[in-house]
């Protein structure tokens, strides 16, 4: 019965709207710093770009978007994805419902190829494409090939993003997820753009993948440090 209720569209939408309202509360009650302070100005010449983030650190990501940015986010079609999608849309993001996989036979099932093509279209039309670099379900904080291939075929750079709050609850989940809490400090950390040549061979793609991984780990650590906290 609980499983059936968990797939009820009305309940999932209600949960998403509640999550959006809660995240707005968190944003309003946390003072914010951005590092580097001129990060958004420095990104202007690199637009449109691919905004990279880690799974489990994504809840507050809509608040990294300036009002004039057209941002599309890739979110899975799972039950959890329905909640996240409703919240993301309520917070001003546009949606692509798809996700990648570690297993090739699941890519079609999860809409991975369709999502990849949609992401290329968004970038070609000048929009910003946001997606998690690591692929469910694990290993956590290991960048997959998908985001690197999107950069290769689009010609647009990958930019690591992280946002953290000083107060949070950590979960024992595959993605080391954190739920941000109100009434504290928050920080946005943004990394350097990572370009991938359209003729990159396997070795160059692996170098780029590792650069994305290192960049995301660096901005995540920096965002938490700016709030005076550490996160595993």
Short description:
This protein has 232 residues and is of the alpha/beta class.
Defining key terms:
single chain, alpha/beta, two-stranded antiparallel sheet
* Secondary structure category: alpha/beta
Query: Order of strands in the sheet with the most strands?
Result: 1-9-6-2-5-3-4
Strand/helix succession? HHEHEEHEHHEHEEEEH
- The rounded distance between the terminal residues' Cα atoms is 35 Å
Count of extended strands: 9
Number of helices: 8
* Major sheet: 7 strands, mixed
Radius of gyration using CA atoms only = 17 Å
- What is the general shape? globular
Domain DUF374: 66-140
Keywords: Acyltransferase, Transferase
InterPro entries: DUF374
Pfam families: DUF374
């Amino acid at each position: 019965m609980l499983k059936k209720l968990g797939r009820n569209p009305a309940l999932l939408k209600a949960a998403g709207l509640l999550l959006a309202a809660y995240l707005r509360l968190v944003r309003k009650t946390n003072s914010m710093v951005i590092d580097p302070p001129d990060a958004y100005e420095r990104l202007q010449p690199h637009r449109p770009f691919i905004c990279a983030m880690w799974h489990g650190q994504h809840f507050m990501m809509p608040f990294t978007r300036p009002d004039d940015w057209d941002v599309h986010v890739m979110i899975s079609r799972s039950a959890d994805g329905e909640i996240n999608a409703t919240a993301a849309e309520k917070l001003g993001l546009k949606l692509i419902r798809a996700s990648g996989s570690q297993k090739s036979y699941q890519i079609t099932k999860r809409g991975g190829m369709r999502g990849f093509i949609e992401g290329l279209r968004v970038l070609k039309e000048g929009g910003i494409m946001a997606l998690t670099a690591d692929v469910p379900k694990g290993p956590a904080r290991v960048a997959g090939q998908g985001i690197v291939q999107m950069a290769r075929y689009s010609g647009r750079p990958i930019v690591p993003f992280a946002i953290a709050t000083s107060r949070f609850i950590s979960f024992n989940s595959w993605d080391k997820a954190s739920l941000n809490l109100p009434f504290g400090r928050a920080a946005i950390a943004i990394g350097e753009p990572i370009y991938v040549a359209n003729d990159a061979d396997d070795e160059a793609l692996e170098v780029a993948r590792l650069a994305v991984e290192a960049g995301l780990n660096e901005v995540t650590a920096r965002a938490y440090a700016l709030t005076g906290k550490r996160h595993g």
